[in-house]
Amino acid sequence: MSAVVARIGKPHGLRGEVTVQVHTDNPDERFATGAQFATEPDRGVLTIVGTRVHQGVWLLQFDEVPDRTAAEALRGTRLVVDEDEDDDEDAWYAEELVGVEVRDPAGTAIGEIVALHVRPAQDLLEVRLLDGRTGLVPFVEEIVPEVVLGGAEGDEAEPEEAEGGQYVVVDAPPGLFDLES
Question: pLDDT: is 165 or 168 the higher one?
Fold first, then answer.
């Protein structure tokens, strides 16, 4: 299975640079010169020859993309890696989290995850509560101490077959869900 590390946005300039929406916790290491990525949909392997951050936006340049026209053709393409090669055990992807039940520390269902917002400082889980309100939860260990997306460690069962199902525990500080999102 592959994991998305970035999604290519619009071209930047005339020499083939593209903006990317980052989906990795470690872009400095992930986007090192020479790094190669498979693409979805398949547009071949892309090799990074340059990176920079411009006004808070990551810009990548690929060896295979010589100009703006080629860069425009990549818009919407996802850069992916094989999850077996992904060494960040605490990394979660939107595809894994959306739709997962949210529980309080006592185990009571309080809602479900509707989105993962990747931000430079910290990621946020968007949670739809059982009463229909939504709230943003900082995706940090102090507030989200447990993420269960499968069986016990080493268990090969599919997540939906795992005992207790998939869930995320949110130990929300008082008033967190009373704030406007």
Answer: 168
- Average predicted confidence (pLDDT) for the chain: 83
Domain co-membership, 105 together with 56:
no
User: 89 falls in which pLDDT band (50, 70, 90)?
Assistant: low
Q: What does the buried/exposed string (b/e) look like for 141-162 if buried means 16 or more CB atoms within 10 Å of the residue's CB?
A: eeebeebbebeeeeeeeeeeeb
pTM over 0.85: no
- End-to-end CA distance of the chain: give it in Å, rounded: 33
Whether residue 66 lies inside any domain: the answer is: yes
> Are residues 67 and 37 part of one domain?
yes
Q: What is the pLDDT of residues 92-108, one digit of tens each?
A: 777 789 999 999 999 99
Question: Which two tokens mark 90?
Answer: 């605490």
- 23 vs 37 pLDDT, higher one: 37
Cβ proximity of 129 and 177 under 8 Å:
yes
- Sheet containing 101-103, strands listed edge to edge, beginning at the edge strand earlier in sequence: 134-138, 124-129, 109-117, 101-103, 167-169, 146-148
Give a yes or no: residue 88 inside a domain: no
Neighbours of 139 (CB within 10 A): 21
Q: Residue 155: which CATH number?
A: 2.30.30.240
